Amino acid sequence: MSVGRICTRTVASATANETVAEVARRMAEYNVGTVAVVDDARTPIAIVTDRDITLRAVAAGHDPETTPVSVIMTREVRTVDEAVPIEQALKTMAGAGTRRLIVTGPEGKLAGLVAIDDVLDLLAEEVESIGKVLRKEQPRLGGS
Predict the structure, then answer these.
(1) Which helix (H) or strand (E) holds 44?
(2) Are 58 and 104 contacting, i.e. CB atoms less than 8 angstroms apart?
(3) What digits encode the pLDDT tens for the residues 5-64?
(4) Residues 6+ apart with CB under 8 A from 59
(5) What share of the chain is helix, strand, coil (3-state, %, to 5)?
(6) Which residues are bridge partners to 115 per DSSP?
(7) Is 126's pLDDT higher than 80?
(8) Is the pTM here over 0.90, yes or no?
(9) How many domains does one find in the chain?
(10) The CATH number of the domain where 139 resides is what?
(11) Domain containing residue 127
């Protein structure tokens, strides 16, 4: 299965010149802890997490209302094409030591975000489906 089938398609995004406060408000609006930073062509250039805001802005003494997000964003953004198998995305996450990847579509444009939680949700659904099959099989096994 491709990562594009399980990724979150509604992704909060920002530009590098927006302020930290604007990005924090967008996180609140979308109820997320991650914002993709994109250029004018919607190509991902960085990522900002609630942890980045806490540690790199607030704890460092930057004024969130005037500090551009470019000061605190993580520039080493990890991306994966939406057609990539989930297993490959997991290898990318493990190699980068991250729990989330930006998903790109045609021409490298922002298409979504995949987190380890998305993979865990898929696994939970599959385990539940297997359990249902086994429960249906149980009466036949006991009666044979």
Answers:
(1) strand 44-49
(2) no
(3) 999 999 999 999 999 999 999 999 999 999 999 999 999 999 999 999 999 999 999 999
(4) none
(5) 45, 25, 30
(6) 100
(7) no
(8) no
(9) 1
(10) 3.10.580.10
(11) 3-143
What pLDDT shows up at residue 138? 67
Tokens of 133: 């099959």
- pLDDT for residue 120: 87
The tokens for 84 are 């990539």
* Structure tokens that stand for 51 in this block: 């942890």
CA–CA separation, 18 and 37 (whole Å): 10
* Burial state string for 107-119 with b = 16 or more CB within 10 A and e = fewer than 16: eeebbbbbbeebb
What token pair was written down for 135? 């429960």
Report the share of the chain in percent with pLDDT over 90. Answer: 78
Question: At how many degrees (to 10) do helices 116-143 and 86-96 cross?
Answer: 130
Please classify residue 122 by burial: count the beta carbons closer than 10 Å to its beta carbon, then call 0-12 exposed, 13-18 middle and 19+ buried: middle
Q: What is the pLDDT of residue 28?
A: 97
Contact present, 3 and 80 (Cβ < 8 Å): yes
Beta carbons of 71 and 64 less than 8 angstroms apart:
no
